[in-house]
Amino acid sequence: MANPLEVGLGVRRTPDPCAVVVFGASGDLTKRKLFPALYSLAYRRLLPERFAVVGIARTEESTRQFLTSMRKAVKEFARDPFRSDVFESLAAGVRYVATDFADDEGEDRIGDVLRELDRTRGTGGNRLYYLAVPPPAFPIVIREVGERREREGWARVIVEKPFGHDLASARELTASIRRWFAEDELFRIDHYLGKETVQNLMALRFANGIFEPLWNRQLIDHVQITVAETMGIEGRAGYYEQAGAIRDIFQNHLLQLLALTAMEPPIDFTAEAVRNEKVKVLRAMHTPGPKSVVRGQYGRGFVDGEEVASYREEPGVDPRSLTETYIAAKLYVDNWRWADTPFYVRAGKRLARRETTIAIQFKQAPHPPFEAIAGDGLRPNTLVVHVQPDEGVSLAIGAKVPGAGMSIRTVHMDFLYGGAFREGVPEAYERLILDAMLGDQTLFTREDEVEEQWKLVDAMVGAWSRDRPSFPNYAAGSWGPSLADELLHRDGRSWRRH
Amino acid sequence: MGVVAEIERKLAAQRCRQKEDDLPDLRTSTMTHLVWAPPEWLGRAKRVLDGLAERHPARTIFLVPLGGRSARIEADATVRAFAVDGNRELISEVVEIRLHGKASRHPGSLVAPLLISDLPVFCRWRGRPEWRGTALEELVEVADRLVVDSTEWGSGVPGAYAELARRFDQVAASDIAWRRTLPWRVALADRWPGIRTMRRLSVEGPLADSLLLVGWLRSRLRREISLSRRASDRVDAVRVDGDVVELPAAPPASGSDLLSAELDSYSRDPVYEAAVRAAAKR
Fold first, then answer.
1. pTM value?
2. Are strands A298-299 and B58-66 parallel, antiparallel or unpaired?
3. What is the pLDDT of residues A241-266, one digit of tens each?
4. A348 to each of A64, A123, A326, A330, A353, how far by Cα in Å?
5. Confidence of residue B248 (pLDDT cuts 50, 70, 90)
6. pLDDT band (50, 70, 90) for residue B19
């Protein structure tokens, strides 16, 4: 019999008792995102009462030292005010193990610590392994963890992006994980999917009757998706030289945003239904030809008023590097809804402004009677989803300028997310860690999605092997190479004005 | 110039003045928030609004019923600006209408033209409502949700619960006292299935909170449960058949937090309504 007292309490599902095991606990991701996210979950009492965290890294330090640095990290990076009682209750279940991931003896010690936590904290043998380590370490950690997997309790693995380097390596990685873990125990994280505004895109499309009838090739002229960063590579030359913009952003964030924009309404909001629709979009995309893709690499320039080095001058980068720090492409989704509607996407580092947006540009009014007097003031209607910053939605519409005559200007109707909802916007990692503890994979990418993404990327990268770009080709602090502008100008369009 | 026109003129003037600080204004309203606040409640009601800060961008209209023989209406309107992300300001509007004499019996015609179109209307009624009065009738007519705090009704409960229950088909109602009992309800729900045969609830707390708790248990468990109570300003202890119910330590929610939670609820709450009906039965 169901508990009648639970009806209407609005109590969110509480995860099972468990231990979160973070590999790479001394890294930046743990300090900036993971531990502050765990603190915020504790602050809101969303963690199970019987809970523990095991931090694992090579850095030699004690649990006490680890906690000292996590306390500092929480104060600096958590979205919630620091409360000693909350931190201490979380800290009581924290252990740190210093070991090399491939070291059998160290891995055995981790097992001992986890069993001790099962006894003292009641975590019940449930483990959530978070792989916050460089991709080459994934198979090693998976093997060590898999070999020691115990029968009692559940085990789930969160793997950070990039999941593989190409289709072959992604398949290989999946196969190595699947030796020990099933697909429903594997959580491929793309933190963009945890962002409220990305989820709001689904709310916007499927909870509002006015948008969906317009969301097709008949009324939409084109779509622009921008993931622009002002940052450089922040000391990650080793990773970035191998990845480039196409693997760092395009393969995951950009294609996921595109899939969410273009997908059909899922029958419900379950993991399988949502991911089924996304993968259909990815399958319907065809490989862009060489003229539909632009690569760039930043040279010296000015960002936020300060002169910054070129990519090739960054520490650890090959001075003759041909790694792209910018990519733009014209993509098509060949299905009934979107045929012949271009999706222009771009992502880059050291661009003029930090901005992630999805802009839906509608077709012009068929016969605006004001055309002769509208001049430059009248632009097509554009619905812009601001993923970050200034999270929200804006709609550009034409309005009459007050006064005599009939001058038309484009004005913005803004819905600022923070303006209507001032609290409760969780960090992406909070949502995703909680979902993984609950076993909900809706906001994680599935094997077939990742494979479709890599198929597209492999085909694009394959074409690059035949030419030698002239890098650098855009100044840091600009909006990317002029070739990217030409990509749209050829079609009589232009990137959104910033 | 009529009162409504005067209020609108004042608000427009204030909005223009706000622009002088060069920050773009953003008027993202989520509701009209009516507050019926007799003079003895007005100070507390304003402090709660201050505590809400920018959490629920709204047009808040304080309606202050005052005595007097002649019908007279006075109004003030202010615009509050809250910085958002350092480079924008969020605008909330606060209107205070003082209703003298007979005017206090008919606030509906003043309120109706000031409601923000297409957005929900919440009416927070401070103190014990005059159940048969025209003011309540008229405000319930325009409101989507009536928010009360039955701990403000003193010894009027449980009789007043029966009056409230009569309004359930007219307007969605919620009670801050009910919201205050939430942590206790969660703790009691955790005792399932052992709690299904309980017979006796002991509460150290206000009468309203105690009645709502026992009403909730009676209606959900569908059984007779007796209540014994020791008076206290807030619920300090709950026992089920003599067993102490443990509550996780947490700072008590402020009046603003409690109201804020109510302003996030839009629809009828059948669990609450059943609890009130059960609480109304002696």
1. 0.77
2. unpaired
3. 989 999 999 999 999 999 999 999 99
4. 40, 43, 4, 15, 10
5. low
6. low
Sole residue written with tokens 């330090």: A61
CB contact under 8 A, B270 and A8: yes
Instruction: Give residue B219's pLDDT.
Output: 96
Listed in sequence order, the residues at least 6 apart from A40 whose beta carbon sits closer than 8 Å to its beta carbon are A78, A79, A80, A426, A427, A430
Q: CA-based angle B164:B166:B171, to the nearest 5?
A: 75
Q: What is the CA radius of gyration of chain B?
A: 21
| Six-digit token string for A65 | 């030292």
Contact yes or no for A17/A122 (Cβ under 8 A): yes
DSSP per position, A426-462:
--HHHHHHHHHHHT--TTSB-HHHHHHHHHHHHHHHH
* Residues A142 and A176 sit within 8 Å (Cβ to Cβ): yes
Side chain identity, residue A152: E
Q: Structure tokens of A364?
A: 């012009």
> How confident is the model at residue B16, as a pLDDT?
66
Which chain A residues contact residue B220 at CB under 8 A? 4-5, 7
Residue with tokens 């403000």: B152
Checking if the pLDDT of A433 tops 60, the result is: yes
pLDDT in tens, A20-70: 999 999 888 899 999 999 999 998 888 888 899 999 999 899 999 999 999
Location of structure tokens 């297409």: B118
Query: What digits encode the pLDDT tens for the residues B87-142?
Result: 666 678 889 999 999 888 889 888 888 888 778 899 999 999 999 899 999 999 88
- Altogether, the residues listed in chain A come to a count of 498
Chain B contact set for A419 (CB, 8 A): 26, 28, 57, 84, 88, 90
**Token pair of A290 as six digits:** 């060489």
3-state secondary structure of B224: coil
- Tell which B residues from 51 to 90 touch A, by Cβ distance under 8 Å: 53-57, 84-85, 88, 90
For residues A449 and A278, is the Cβ–Cβ distance under 8 A? yes
**Å from A10 to nearest chain B CA?**
10
Give the rounded distance of the alpha carbon of A301 from its chain centre: 27
Do A389 and B221 lie within an 8 Å CB cutoff?
no
Q: Are B164 and B191 in contact (CB under 8 A)?
A: no
